[in-house]
Amino acid sequence: MEPPTIAPRPSWAPDDGPAAKWIKGPMDLAAWKRSLAHRDYLDFLHRVNDAVAGKKTSQWVPQSPGVQKVMSMLEVIKGYTDKHPPEAEMQQRYGNKAYRKWYAELTENAKELINDVLEEVENDGAAAMLEPYLLDSFGNQTRIDYGSGHEAAFIILLLCFEKIGLFTPEDLPAVGLMIFGEYLRACRHLQRLYKMEPAGSHGVYSLDDYQFVPFLWGSSQLIGSNFDPNNYPQPEKVQDHDMESLFLEAITYINDTKTGPFYEHSNQLWNISAVPNWDKINSGLFKMYEAEVLLKFPVVQHFLFCKYFQLTPVPDEN
Amino acid sequence: METAAAVSETSAGLVENTVNDLDKQIQTLMNCEIISEAEVKSLCAKAKEILIQEGNVQVIDSPVTVGGQLPYTNYLFLGDFVDRGHYSVETFLLLLALKVRYPDRMMLIRGNHESRQITQVYGFYDECVRKYGSPTVWKCCTDVFDCLSLSAVIAGKVFCVHGGLSPSIQTLDEIRAIERKQEVPHDGAMCDLLWSDPEDAMGWGMSPRGAGYLFGSDVVKMFCENNGVDLICRAHQLVMEGYKWHFNETVLTVWSAPNYCYRCGNVAAILELDEDINKEFSIFEAAPQVGSENRGAPAKKPLPDYFL
């Protein structure tokens, strides 16, 4: 008997529906790599990277109403934890199941939260389209875990906000330093409060169990600074400087939450501290991010696509 | 070269050489040091010969130690021997050497990380290249992965698998019918056995992992009844206390990696079953992480592909 022929899947096409997955197998990675979405994502990462170069996290940057709205949204989301404190730990495998209640609260309010953010901007009911990104930004409800895919979902949300017109180029420093900084603090709060597992950590081959982009943009912040990279594995050298850069703030979080010597629990970061300057660290981290996060099927299989983040191939230059 | 010379001696001499070599390799690996590439090739070849004889559902007699240290009982390891840690190479080769040395006492079944695709993401490939200078050892090991059995049944009563159940599988015979000597597929029965998780909802659910399924207590009840087993023993998920019962003690998760990612603060567990399948758990913590006195801070080596 002939094996059934599998009809080729129709190419992805943009529609007005909610953002959804499309990548089903490693064969789809090639389509992702040459897509508008891939190009736009890297372009956004680079533009924010350039916008925060040499800037301290604590320094003042202009905050447009659009930026302020996203900051408020993050505060509200973080505040849901007050309504859902961790439950007594008997019978739990690892993560605290109160996280699922926190997540249910987020789910109930997500569309309204996005509508509020986009209130002043023409958006054609984008809230329904973008809701899945917000819901994917803070971890997985079932597994009670968090990883670089969730971080990417939030960045894609910001990218979509920019496409819709919420942010202008002048907002990019605030996007990187203020919005993304607050987002990270909200995530760390959730990770600690609900004991979230690292999702798909590469272990000693990871940069970090949960995040990548604070190291990326954070290294840009430190370009031209006096802070010698060789020193960041030493907690006492980082302590007084961690509000200068998302990178150092992320290192402090690692020191606060991991055990043993730095070279053992964060071997990649240990190695990178030998790179002579922040410029080279920054460009190296971009290469590493592209290869280790954006081209790895276990991460990218969960990415969501929509009208503002399209799997359509980048047109040839001819 | 040594093997070729040994072949020309008596068979008694050959066996003795092999056992001595193996014991030396076991000692080396126990000391967390690597054996040579040539030794790896030879070890993998011998291991494959033994493993391919085993069925997809290995039969094991009690007493058994599930998860874990050396041979007075039978030993069963539930997979995920590599990735994420500093010593995947030494760990896996030690298990192989023990398997070849004590083939009827040591049982290894496949985890979702025993895969070419997964090990190229989560570190084993990189570790092999770093320690041996080329992917050859990785290639040998992944060829061995393909030969690993998928499951085991202890004393006819305890079904052991790395992940969990599959909607494509109702009986052990259906598992026996799987053609397992291949890379772990993206879907289907073999994939599900290595990727699925128990979850509180009834029936089958989509897995957030992107492979395998979530399965409920009703599914477990039916599987146990259909196959005359009392318990499904599996791993695959982090457990704070090292082991966790689910579904009225019909599913057991055993997790043997303490302080996962050097942050999770969990303990590890080993399940011990005596002749009558009475269960006892051994719990252990992470080895002390000593500072510079023991191994000393390693040299800083930024990855040349990215940072040079």
Automatic annotation (TrEMBL), chain A:
InterPro entries documented for this protein: Phstyr_phstse_ac, PTPA_C_lid, PTPA_sf
A biological process term (GO) from this entry: mitotic spindle organization
EC numbers for this chain: 5.2.1.8
Pfam families with a match to the protein in the record: PTPA
GO function term, MF aspect, one: peptidyl-prolyl cis-trans isomerase activity
Keywords: Cytoplasm, Isomerase, Rotamase
Cross-referenced PANTHER family: SERINE/THREONINE-PROTEIN PHOSPHATASE 2A REGULATORY SUBUNIT B, SERINE_THREONINE-PROTEIN PHOSPHATASE 2A ACTIVATOR
Protein name: Serine/threonine-protein phosphatase 2A activator
Organism for this UniProt entry: Mesorhabditis spiculigera
Organism phylogeny: Eukaryota, Metazoa, Ecdysozoa, Nematoda, Chromadorea
TrEMBL record, chain B:
Protein name as catalogued: Serine/threonine-protein phosphatase
Species of origin: Mesorhabditis spiculigera
GO function terms (MF aspect): metal ion binding; protein serine/threonine phosphatase activity
EC number: 3.1.3.16
Lineage start: Eukaryota, Metazoa, Ecdysozoa, Nematoda, Chromadorea
Keywords: Hydrolase, Manganese, Metal-binding
Catalytic activity from the UniProt record: O-phospho-L-threonyl-[protein] + H2O = L-threonyl-[protein] + phosphate
Cofactor field: Mn(2+)
Highest taxon, organism lineage: Eukaryota
Recorded family membership: Belongs to the PPP phosphatase family.
Xref: InterPro entries: Calcineurin-like_PHP, Metallo-depent_PP-like, PPA2-like, Ser/Thr-sp_prot-phosphatase
Keyword Manganese set for record: yes
Domain Serine/threonine specific protein phosphatases, first and last residues per copy: 109-114
Family matches, as PANTHER family: SERINE/THREONINE-PROTEIN PHOSPHATASE PP2A-RELATED
